[in-house]
Amino acid sequence: MASQDIIARSATTTAPSSIRHQEEVAKLIDTTKCIGCKACQVACSEWNELRDEVGHNHGTYDNPQDLSAETWTLMRFTEHETDEGNLEWLIRKDGCMHCAEPGCLKACPSPGAIIKHANGIVDFNQDHCIGCGYCITGCPFNIPRISQKDHKAYKCTLCSDRVSVGLEPACVKTCPTGAIVFGSKQDMKEHAAERIVDLKSRGFDNAGLYDPDGVGGTHVMYVLHHADTPRVYAGLPDQPIISPLVGLWKGVTKPLALLAMGAAVLAGFFHYVRVGPQRVEEDEHPSPPDTSVHVVDPAVHVYDPNRPGGQGEERP
Amino acid sequence: MNDKPIQRYNANERTNHWLVAILFIMAALSGLALFHPALYWLSHLFGGGPWTRILHPFMGVLMFVFFLGLVLRFWRANYFIANDRLWLKRIDRVMRNEEEGVPPIGKYNPGQKLLFWTLLLCMLVLLISGVVIWRAYFSSYFGIGSIRLATLLHALAAFVLVLSIIVHIYAGIWIKGSASAMLHGGVSRAWAKKHHELWYREVTGDKQPEPPINKKG
What we know:
By secondary structure, chain A is of the alpha+beta class. In chain A, 23% of the residues lie in helices and 16% in strands. In chain A, the strands form four sheets. Chain A has a four-stranded mixed β-sheet with strand order 9-2-11-10. Chain A has a three-stranded antiparallel β-sheet with strand order 1-5-6, with no helix packed on it. In chain A, β3 and β4 form a beta hairpin. The model of chain A has no long low-confidence stretch (mean pLDDT 90). Chains A and B meet through α3, α7 and α8 of A and α1, α2, α6 and α8 of B. Chain B: Keywords: Cell membrane, Electron transport, Heme, Iron, Membrane, Metal-binding, Transmembrane, Transmembrane helix, Transport. Chain B: It comes from Pseudomonas donghuensis.
């Protein structure tokens, strides 16, 4: 994508280019239509040339077990028992949510290593990534992973390379049930609304769209049967927000701290200018006391009984 | 009167101090590079962002190890004594270079002692939180909550440490003779008597009584 399309940039305090207007895009994942075939995982690894290590079966359908630097999307399977005692198999395609207010971008210390495009895609630029892992600290969804091979951070790019030439992301193209769709964010919301009406008519009273406000909305959204309890979908956060600890760490405190350090240096300088240094006089060779002058301690009064009047020594 | 200088720091103590100082400067500059975008250019001093990220924790750990050397050597001299309270009360006079009413103090003044304990606390927080956020080796053993807290504490402790060291460096510029004590080891008798009289009497065996300080003075 063109550099004019970058509307937010990590570790940058000036405004990035913002003259172009682009429609926001979104990927809508309908968990109610997903059959858990993992074609999206395969399409992702094919398009992005990723070959994760073959792992082991851990007793669930999740394979591999977790996201990694080489697995950018992952089906998470949950066996959920409803209040009525029915068993539901909930399957959620996990991956970067492409937040409107990305915690990773806020936390990143390297200028330009994380960028947000005008169409809403949040992308990592590994060329600028220093491998500190602050993006992991900032992310409310536990998505970025640092590769142990090159110590760079990786995550879903929403196929920004495909989207920039008018194609849909690879996972969308391959999904056999139409559970993943892609388009403008507005269109995706309308599509989701239709789906939710349908789901409600079929008894899923709590069906709804997951587009959480806490991160300014996301450019990957879910249709959930249980939108009242997103956490049942393998721990999807109910109210994702950038952690207040991260806010405190990366917020207004840092410029203030910088100011305080500068002020401390200035305070020292002006103390030196106004009060001046502390020097020890008569360094090294103290002059011997002058014995020719009789020094009188003003606190001592000499009383000479032989002198009339008996007064103390006259003092000047 | 004997006018031979008094030794304040021996060669090992001086070496140890300057090793900590050099490592502090390096750890601080590389840490500040990641602290705020305005200082990211400092990463070029270390060969770029990734090298800054790689080197910073090693410099920090080394600094802590050498700082422990200083702690073992000097912690006893940094116990607070009775006069310290009054000295701190009269800190405004100290700041104005006035000596009247400022009580005599030992090898270290209470400001130096506070600095010593603050540095120790900051270094401990930096070490522990630094291990937690050291991605390459340790972060995988900690949960995201601990990592977030550690990141915040690391920045906070580093901020306090940098401020303390700014004060420390300025004190060395302000009090003539103290920097050369750390460079060459010796101080003049007059210096010792003026700035650390109790220590001076202890070292020289000089029992000369001083007029008591009037608390109201």
